[in-house]
Amino acid sequence: MRRAGVVLACLLVWGTAWPAARAPATLNPAMRATLARAVAASPGFDNRFAAEVWLVDMSRRLAHFVPDVTRRLALLRDVHAAASEAGVSPEVVLAVIEVESHFKRFALSSAGARGLMQVMPFWRDEIGTADDNLFARATNLRYGCAILAVYLAREHGRLAPALARYNGSTGRTIYSDRVLAALRRHWRID
């Protein structure tokens, strides 16, 4: 699967040199333009090629959850930026979002957790400001990634216990097992 993503990214980079009959159907001009905008606005990548490879690969994986390509690439760009800023794996963040909100930006839990990463409102007092909108994608991702980074540091990089802390289920494994299963199933890059 990863090889297909790399091949697709290579086609995006060098696709204009290929005859139209050989170009994949998914690389229409609108898709190219959307991807080009996402790459241009994607901090946290070492170079354009790395951005294209990751965005194309993850976009394909995320298509099941977020069908609109423009929205999908914007989400991926923001996930990568927030994760990179916090020093956490963007693939782990995608797994957390899958389990927490199933990629629903306006998700609201019965406990009051909000947004993609299901951030509790009390975090505004701890790391933000009272008027921060936890349903705003960039804000939610910034909070969620920062919280996850703190818990990873507290757990000396051990992902399962950090995930349990993130979920408020320290000492139990059901939540971390779900996130790790989502990571293996959909987001892992080996």
Flag low-confidence runs. Answer: 1-27
Order of helices and strands: HHHHHHHHH
Q: CATH topology, what is it called?
A: Lysozyme
Radius of gyration, in angstroms, nearest whole number? 17 Å
First and last CA, distance: 10 Å
CATH class: Mainly Alpha
Instruction: Round the mean pLDDT to the nearest integer and report it.
Output: 82
Structural class by secondary-structure content: mainly alpha
The 3D shape can be described as globular
Beta-strand percent range:
under 5%
* H/I helix tally: 9
Largest sheet: none
Per CATH, the architecture is: Orthogonal Bundle
How many domain modules? Answer: 1
What is the number of E strands? Answer: 0
Helix content: 55-70%
InterPro entries: Lysozyme-like_dom_sf, Transglycosylase_SLT_dom_1
Organism: Salinisphaera japonica YTM-1
Protein name: Transglycosylase
Keywords: Signal
